[in-house]
Design brief:
- The protein is α/β, with parallel strands linked by helices.
- It has one domain: NADP-dependent oxidoreductase domain (TIM Barrel, Alpha-Beta Barrel).
- The chain is 39% helix and 13% strand.
- The chain contains 15 helices and 11 strands.
- It has a 7-stranded parallel β-sheet, with helices on one face. A two-stranded antiparallel sheet has the order 1-2.
- A hairpin with a 4-residue loop joins strand 6 (135-136) and strand 7.
- The longest helix is centred in the first third of the chain and has 16 residues, at 3-18.
- It starts with a helix and ends with a helix.
Length: 378
């Protein structure tokens, strides 16, 4: 399927749902506060978020329209970050209206869950935490898939301890394990839900077939996958299934690993341990080739009075009411920037116009390296 045919198919599914809701382009919200959440004593003493953000439903789970991905904080894109600063960043997000936080046992491993747990402990009942099992972290094999029932239970007990909580709001299978029937995975999670340790469950990078098999055993609330202006495969691969079954969608890397923010140009280069050093989209050739997309995003951002990062999220939030992206950052200024996307939406006509411009751009580079791709469910 070529790009124009893809866009025609994707647009048909998207714009039918946009109709009545897209007649206005702005969602009203409270003004953005500049107050930064302080220490745990201040929070426990009754300070509450000053900013109200749009709420969205992932199945029956209520979350803020924009969540916070907490993977970059453990050095996924290079760098070493101070624990206290990252905890302050997570609390800053809460202060700005974010109630949805994403982590996983494999991030660190363990470090991300520990920091998220400490950061959110003072207002645990006011937020939703998503975490994941599915890699052999407990067995000292963090790159190997493992969704055996006994592993799932060990992983959940560890996550509960690190997150300082008695329940996980949204538990994902991080990757589909071809060696364990989906029915066994879903059945184990269903038992954990009956025990009150898990409230909702989801899948990450799962195919439509796997989503249906899981949902038939235990209703799935959300599916998480990579999705951004420059990687739109989920629109045709799983969106119809999600819409049919009433399942929410949680895009990770919605800013294209910073490519869509305009902070990366054709002379940018990446070295390990930065994850982008191994990705086809970030080779020198691909960066140069894909610059017209950055220019398109920038022009639309200026037209809407937004920054490029804000426009990238506005574009996504405007496509479906059941999408709640989880951009990640380690920088308070970047956090404040992308949370500014919470109040603006594109109309259906603007979405169509953008797609016409987008269809003229030829993009280069796959989103994953071969090993990562081999663990993605097809």
């Amino acid at each position: 399927m070529d790009r124009r045919e893809f866009l025609k198919k994707a647009a048909g599914a998207s714009f039918a749902a946009l109709g009545a809701a897209a007649g206005v382009s702005r969602v009203f919200a409270e003004p953005l506060s500049s107050h930064i959440v302080g220490d745990a004593d201040d929070i426990a003493g009754g300070n509450r978020p000053d900013r109200q953000m749009e709420r969205r439903r992932l199945g029956n789970l209520d979350v803020s329209a924009i969540g916070l991905g907490c993977l970059p904080m453990v050095g996924y894109y290079g760098g070493t970050y101070d624990k206290r600063e990252m905890i302050a960043l997570i609390r800053r997000a809460y202060d700005k209206g974010v109630t949805f936080f994403d982590t996983a046992e494999v991030y660190g491993p363990y470090t991300s869950e520990e920091w998220v747990g400490e950061a959110l402990a003072p207002f645990r009942d006011k937020v939703k935490i998503g975490t994941k099992f599915g890699f052999g972290v407990e067995e000292k094999q963090p790159t190997a898939l493992n969704s055996r029932p006994d592993h799932i239970r060990r992983a959940v007990e560890g996550s509960l301890k690190r997150l300082r909580t008695d329940h996980i709001d949204l538990l994902y299978q991080h990757r589909v394990d071809p060696n364990v029937p989906m029915e066994d995975v879903a059945g184990t999670v269903k038992e954990l839900m009956t025990e009150g340790k898990v409230l909702h469950w989801g899948l990450s990078e799962a195919s439509a077939r796997s989503i249906r098999r899981a949902h038939a055993v235990c209703p799935v609330s959300a599916v998480q996958s990579e999705y951004a202006i420059w990687w739109r495969e989920p629109e045709t691969k799983i969106f119809p299934t999600l819409e049919e079954l009433g399942i929410g969608f949680v895009p990770y890397c919605p800013l294209g690993r910073a490519f869509l923010t305009g902070t990366i140009d054709e002379i940018s280069r990446f070295e390990k341990p930065d994850r982008r050093a191994t990705l086809p989209q970030f080779t020198p050739e691909a960066l140069k080739h894909n610059m017209p997309l950055v220019a398109l995003v920038r022009s639309w951002a200026e037209r809407k009075g937004l920054t490029p990062a804000q426009f990238a999220l506005v574009w996504m939030l405007s496509r479906k009411s059941w999408i709640a992206p989880i951009p990640g950052t380690t920088n308070p200024d970047h956090l404040d920037d992308f949370l500014g996307a919470g109040a603006v939406r594109l109309t259906a006509w603007e979405m169509e116009e953008f797609d016409r411009d987008y269809a003229k751009i030829d993009l280069m580079g796959h989103r994953a390296d071969p090993f990562t791709e081999s663990q993605i469910d097809k």
